[in-house]
Design a protein that fits this description.
The chain is built from 9 helices and no strands. The protein has 187 residues and is mainly α. Helix 1 packs across helix 4 and helix 8 (143-156) packs antiparallel against helix 9. The longest helix is centred in the last third of the chain and has 24 residues, at 161-184. The chain is elongated, with a radius of gyration of 20 Å. Residues 102-115 have low confidence and may be disordered.
């Protein structure tokens, strides 16, 4: 595998499903998924590429980690069902599935309820970082800054009904917070 092939893999990585990554159909048996992962690992396991330049090693490691993520999801029947549902909605890497397979990052994350997260409703990979920031800002109680990040996400994922609904919700929160501040303001 040459540097050009590595660049091609990196270019498509965020635009292919886990099934496409392994070149298997969506109804592939667990054995077929396992065999496809083994073939993938033969090409991308970092140990095979120790002789490469560090930047190429890092790229191959990134590709391999995505492959192991895909294998964990596709080999777990419950995660696979959830992944298939997300895929049917055009979501290639649903956050709720990734969080569950890695385990909760904190006690406040509830994987069973994570499917309702806004980040799972984003269709564009470019919008994901903005939506993650929106969620973080809302936890801190800052709907104004969250709205700014949401607008950025909406530019990356236009006409997404979930984002449009969240924008209206944030507008109401901002208005309510302004009215509350106005009531509490003393001259």
């Amino acid at each position: 595998m040459d540097a050009g092939a590595i660049r091609q893999w990196l270019a498509i990585l965020d635009s292919v499903s886990y099934y496409d990554l392994f070149r298997v159909p969506q109804d592939a048996s667990p054995d077929r998924v396992r065999d496809a992962f083994h073939s993938f690992a033969e090409s991308f396991h970092p140990d095979v590429h120790q002789w490469r330049h560090p930047s190429e090693q890092a790229a191959i490691g990134y590709i391999f980690r995505r492959g192991t993520e895909a294998y964990r999801v596709l080999s777990d029947p419950m995660l696979r069902v959830r992944y298939d549902e997300a895929l049917a909605n055009g979501i290639l890497r649903p956050e709720s599935v990734i969080v569950e397979q890695e385990g909760p990052k904190s006690m406040s994350i509830n994987p069973a309820g994570a499917a309702a997260r806004l980040v799972d409703k984003v269709r564009s990979p470019g919008a994901r970082p903005f939506i993650l920031r929106v969620e973080e800002l809302l936890k801190k109680g800052d709907p104004q800054q969250a709205k700014i990040q949401l607008v950025m996400a909406m530019h990356m994922d236009p006409k997404n009904p979930a984002l449009e609904a969240k924008a209206k919700e944030l507008d109401e929160q901002i208005k309510a917070k302004a009215e509350e501040a106005k009531k509490n303001w003393k001259k």
